[in-house]
Amino acid sequence: MATKTLVLIAALAASTFVLSGCAAAPESTEDAAAAEYCARMVTNSGGLEDRSFNQSSWEGLQAAADEFGIEVDALVSQNETDLAPNVEQAVETGCQFVLTVGWELAEATSSEAEANPDLHFAIVDELVEGDNIKPIVFDTAQAAFLAGYLAAGVSKTGVVGTFGGGNQPPVTLFMDGFVDGVAHYNDKHGSAVTVLGWNKETQDGLFTGDFENVSLGKSLTDGLLDQNADVILPVAGQVGEGAGAAILERGNASLIWVDNDGYDTLPAELRSILLTSVLKNTQDAVVDIVGNDLDGDFDNAPFVGTLENGGVDIAPFHDLESLVPAELSAELDALRESIVSGEIEVTSPSSP
């Protein structure tokens, strides 16, 4: 009898072991944290598919969702009256992290961050102070310096042009770098390429006063083309598509895009005129900041994208690579290294 009892106990123990072995593994602390974490993004009035910083920021938040298994969503502002209410609505969702995009959202971000000290905020393209606000800014003048040098090197007319959507630091920072890049090329090559549309000394130039009206971009670009400009840098979000349309119509100039690689984001018909793009690596910055927040390592020190940390650069030449001589490409590589090392200092009143 005793032997049978021992056998039964052993069998029960074995079955218990098998059942426990089949049980689901306990959820890790990281998995649990991600399951409880969510993030919201608020766009400016350009919308999610602005082929500019809204789109790049949203791509970054989506990448964070894929990498960390968190829930994300975006609140799209249709006009200026939506900005503050959308930030307030993002806060009311109960999410731990709120990402806002553009200088227009600075006031609303600051106000909501002050009223909600336990939440964490980040804002793209604007320096906003606050214990719980992480600015994400980019020294785009460094990359635009390369683009200006490139533009001067490929120009056949000796005239290049630029214009902005508005006279504000995130815009004029590109234009300052572009003008200085052209000037550096002139110094190195004894040439006299001129830049239409921006005067760094007076901090004044051509602006549409708008980031959405494509027709304004076309008309301004027509004016630049009429003055023999054969490389155009629009810093105006969607308005820049009008520049592309004007160049495509004329067929005698090339386009430099900003924020993301226009070869991937612009209509395919513009690829044939796209020389390069001045890149801001917003996507990776957003992923890193969300990851740090999940790990409990959020801080309010501004992230500043530079050539050195890969936050800014210029895109490949894609279909127009044949326009860029090997010597010029090598000069650009050397120029990049000189900026990173500090041998060449790119400055602007708008530098972050």
Please tell me about this protein's structure:
The chain has 352 residues and is α/β, with parallel strands linked by helices. The protein contains twelve helices and 14 strands. The strands form three sheets. Strands 2-1-3-4-5-13 form a six-stranded parallel β-sheet, with helices on both faces. It has a six-stranded mixed β-sheet with strand order 7-6-10-11-12-14, with helices on both faces. Helix 7 links the parallel strand 6 and strand 7 (194-196). It is globular.
Condensed summary:
The chain is of the alpha/beta class and 352 residues long. The protein has helices at residues 2-22, 29-36, 53-68, 83-92, 106-115, 140-154, 169-189, 214-226, 240-250, 262-265, 282-294, 326-341, and strands at residues 38-42, 71-75, 97-101, 120-124, 133-138, 159-164, 194-196, 198-199, 204-205, 231-235, 254-259, 274-280, 303-305, 312-314. The protein has 2 domains: 31-138, Response regulator (Rossmann fold, 3-Layer(aba) Sandwich); 140-280 and 317-341, Rossmann fold, CATH 3.40.50.2300.
